[in-house]
Design a protein that fits this description.
By secondary structure, the chain is an alpha/beta fold. The protein is 40% helix and 19% strand. It has 13 helices and 16 strands. It has helices spanning 7-25, 30-46, 48-65, 69-75, 79-94, 133-144, 158-174, 191-196, 212-221, 244-256, 275-288, 330-340, 353-362, and strands at 102-107, 113-120, 123-128, 148-152, 182-184, 205-209, 234-238, 265-271, 292-295, 306-307, 321-327, 345-349, 367-370, 390-391, 399-400, 407-414. The strands form 4 sheets. It has a 7-stranded parallel sheet, sandwiched between helices.
């Protein structure tokens, strides 16, 4: 039995077992990986009552800790959300296996034939807060991409993540794959996080999913490479050529569908020419939906709004709050996004194709949308089955990180006795 009090020894053991599992998983047959994912989905659905009971323990703990309603919503599991996890597992199983995929091939005058093919990264560490579904999503994507994974869920989702993890292990074992391919750190001790960040000999990359505090800590202290998912400071710009009905529907959905996810809109930019028409209508609808709207001086004339402070620009609320301001034109909107954005997701609402082109060309965020809710900023909605996170950096992976993004590549070089002059 593992000694959960000796964190360095515990994490060293988990790392060594993950590295051994990765050596097996990197050449595991596609059929075996798919069978494991399908079996895990079946096991998870069969255990749904146990998962819900575990989640209720976490919810009670979260309420005692005073978690916000938005954070509690992220933590909550329901029958529908468990079904969605199961659907995600099956969707990932149905996808093409990225491992071994041919990316490019060519011949050289020297007689060499060169192929570049996808290969697993090795061992991935995932550190996450609140959302227990990350356990299933991250475990499944790492398995599909031939990587072993060490999962360290948040203390608030400890019981839920453990119950979900058990179903993933059932899937691995039934398919004859190493159970150590998906490991969940079995302690709430924060020292386990610090240990993961320095496990350069066994972990190849760390993926943090959580608030600014967690991601900032990881980026500051990690000696292992990091796929950063910082804040989702999501902007929606209502252009002067926006359709009023589309604008109303998209903004309401982007803000209110689920306020606690990283794709939720946090700042509304309104072209000066449509303030008295589309802008007022949208803001009144947000207020009627229970959203607190913090505005600049111009929009403050709308009844029910409150004055925005300097810290409301560039802020991720993850709650029923949105900042709103007037901009003179599309370039002013772009300047605001450059100044306050986190390079996550931005949206333009307009019927002017030239405005769309200008926005798409000049805004440098991982995801740009036109006339679509930013709540679609999700790997599942992109056809990836699920995501391990949305990377806001620019190296290796950017945007939703699915199975394909969890691979690197290697070169396979063939000759016929070729020698170099």
């Amino acid at each position: 039995m593992q000694d959960l009090t000796d964190i360095p020894a515990l994490m060293a053991d988990i790392g060594a077992r993950a590295r051994a599992a990765a050596a097996e998983l990197c050449h595991a047959p596609t059929a075996a990986k798919n069978a494991a994912l399908s079996a895990a989905a079946d096991a998870l659905w069969s255990a749904r009552n146990a998962v819900l009971e575990a989640n209720e323990k976490d919810m009670a703990h979260g309420r005692e800790k005073g978690l916000s309603e938005a954070m509690l919503d992220r933590l909550l599991l329901t029958g529908d959300r468990i079904r969605s996890m199961c659907d995600g597992l099956r969707a990932i199983a149905a996808q093409a296996d990225p491992v071994g995929q041919l990316m490019a091939e060519w011949d050289q005058p020297s007689g060499l034939h060169i192929r570049r093919v996808r290969t697993p990264l090795g061992v991935i560490g995932v550190i996450y807060e609140s959302r227990p579904n990350v356990t299933a999503d991250a475990g499944a994507l790492c398995l599909k991409s031939g990587n072993a994974v060490i999962l360290r869920g948040g203390s608030e989702s400890f019981h839920s993540s453990s119950a979900i993890h058990a179903a993933l292990i059932d899937g691995l074992v039934s398919a004859g794959l190493p159970a150590d391919a998906i490991q969940l750190v079995p302690t709430r001790d924060r020292a386990a996080v610090s240990a993961m960040l320095t496990m350069t000999g066994t972990i190849d990359v760390i993926v943090p999913r959580g608030g600014k505090g967690l991601v900032g800590l990881v980026q500051k202290e990690a000696r292992v490479p990091v796929f950063a998912h910082l804040e989702g400071i999501v902007h929606i710009y209502i252009d002067k050529a926006a359709d009023p009905v589309k604008a109303l529907n998209v903004v309401l959905n982007a803000k209110t569908r689920r306020t606690g996810i990283c794709g939720a809109a946090e700042c509304l930019l309104v072209h000066r020419d449509v303030v008295d028409t589309i802008g007022q209508g949208v803001i009144r609808a947000l207020i009627a939906a229970g959203v607190e709207v913090r505005t600049d001086k111009t929009l403050l004339a709308i009844e029910g709004t409150t004055a925005a402070g300097a810290d409301d620009w560039g802020r991720e609320y993850l709650d029923a709050i949105i900042a709103a301001r007037v901009v003179d034109d599309i370039d002013a909107a772009i300047d605001h996004i450059r100044s306050y954005g986190s390079q996550h997701t931005e949206c333009i609402l307009t019927e002017d194709p030239d405005a769309v082109s200008r926005f798409f060309d000049r805004v440098d965020s991982a995801i740009l949308m036109h006339n679509a809710s930013t709540q679609f900023a999700d790997g599942g909605e992109f056809g990836m089955g699920a995501e391990i996170g949305i990377a806001t950096g620019k190296l290796h992976a950017r945007g939703p990180v699915g199975a394909e993004q969890l691979t690197s590549f290697k070169y396979l070089v063939s000759g016929d006795g070729a020698v170099r002059d």
